[in-house]
UniProtKB/TrEMBL annotation:
InterPro entries: ABC_transporter_permease, MetI-like, MetI-like_sf. Residues 75-290 form the ABC transmembrane type-1 domain. Belongs to the binding-protein-dependent transport system permease family. It comes from Rhizobium setariae. The chain crosses the membrane at residues 21-45, 78-101, 113-132, 161-186, 207-232, 271-291. CDD domains: TM_PBP2. Its main location: membrane. GO terms for cellular component: plasma membrane. It is a multi-pass membrane protein. Keywords: Cell membrane, Membrane, Transmembrane, Transmembrane helix, Transport. This is Sugar ABC transporter permease. It is found in: Cell membrane.
């Protein structure tokens, strides 16, 4: 008991300077993030308009939210955009990483070129791809000027496929980061594994699928979380490319929140939409945290 009682203070005082230095960060996280999140959820159950007010209306804001066609379109677009972004960015990024992992010449140059779009803001990317996909200036105009006058390609002006035009711009910007993360994971694989697979006569594609990818699980999980966070909060790319149009066909949840909180001056509805976005993030983060920490413990 004496050893136990004397050991506890020593354990508490260990790295005490680091713990004291972390206090401002912890307080900031509790007040700004946790407090702000709780405040948003609380006021999502009120009828706040221009200014927040504690007049509770129960689940009315959520009923109204899920009966609004604009919100349903935003959720549908986010689902389509999210699934395609996850699949294509992972596949393209991994393929590019495997190509660069072959120790090709000018690897640093190619890596810089592929990563360069990620250095641009979403606004710049959206404006660039708005010009590229413009039927009067971009791809359609160039192809028609070459003689194919019947060629038609205007995704940003077609309601049924406009979200795919946004997806193309997002892939162009984000795939380079995924490639770098995957390449870092591939460079962490022991070279002896490749030598053993060659000795056993295992094809390269089978080695990647059966051996390399399972060993890259931490990198894959981290990449998935980064991509998913970017998917949920996509806003400026849509605003720069389409402003939510044609009509509301490219609406996304983040833009819906902005419109209702700052333009329609309906804070209660904006808070309800924000809470649903928070819930979608929790659905992603909680399983990740469980698999990373819970199962390991």
């Amino acid at each position: 008991m004496a050893e136990l009682s004397t050991g506890r203070p020593n354990q508490f005082l260990r790295n005490i300077s680091a713990k004291i230095a972390a206090i401002p960060l912890i307080l900031t996280a509790l007040v700004v993030f946790v407090g702000g999140t709780g405040w948003t959820v609380l006021y999502s159950f009120t009828d706040s308009k221009l200014l927040p007010r504690l007049r509770f209306v129960g689940l009315d804001q959520y009923y109204r939210l899920w009966n609004t066609p604009r919100w349903l379109v935003a959720v549908e677009n986010l689902f389509i955009y999210g699934i395609c972004m996850l699949v294509f960015s992972l596949v393209i990024g991994f393929l590019l990483a495997t190509l660069l992992d072959q120790k090709i010449r000018f690897e640093n140059t190619f890596r810089s070129i592929l990563l360069y779009p990620f250095a641009l803001s979403f606004i710049v990317t959206g404006l660039v791809w708005q010009w590229i996909l413009n039927p009067d200036l971009g791809v359609q105009h160039v192809v028609r000027s070459l003689g194919w006058t019947s060629f038609s390609f205007d995704p940003l002006y077609t309601s049924s496929i406009v979200i795919y035009g946004v997806l193309v711009a997002a892939l162009w910007q984000g795939t380079g980061l995924v490639m770098c993360l995957m390449l870092a994971g591939l460079r962490g694989i022991d070279e002896d594994i490749w030598k053993a697979s060659r000795v056993d006569g295992i094809p390269a594609w089978r080695t990647y699928i059966s051996i390399i990818l399972p060993m890259m699980r931490p990198v894959l999980v981290t990449t998935l979380v980064i991509i998913a966070a970017g998917i949920v909060k996509v806003y400026d790319l849509v605003v720069a490319q389409t402003s939510g149009g044609p009509g509301i066909s490219s609406e996304v949840p983040a833009k819906y929140v902005y419109e209702y909180m700052f333009r329609a001056q309906n804070l209660g509805q904006g808070f309800a939409a924000s809470t649903m976005m928070l819930l979608s993030v929790a659905i992603i983060i909680v399983p990740w945290a469980y698999f990373e920490f819970g199962r390991r413990k």
